[in-house]
Amino acid sequence: MEYIQKYLDEIGRIVQNLPQAEIAHVINILTQARAEGKRIFVFGNGGSAAMASHFATDLGKGTVQEGKPRFKVMSLNDSVPLLTAYANDFGYETVFAEPLASLAEAGDVAIAISSSGNSPNVLRAMDVARERGLTTIGITGFEGGKLREKVDVCV
Question: Which of 4, 19, 62, 90 has its CA 20 to 30 A from that of 12?
Answer without folding.
Answer: 62
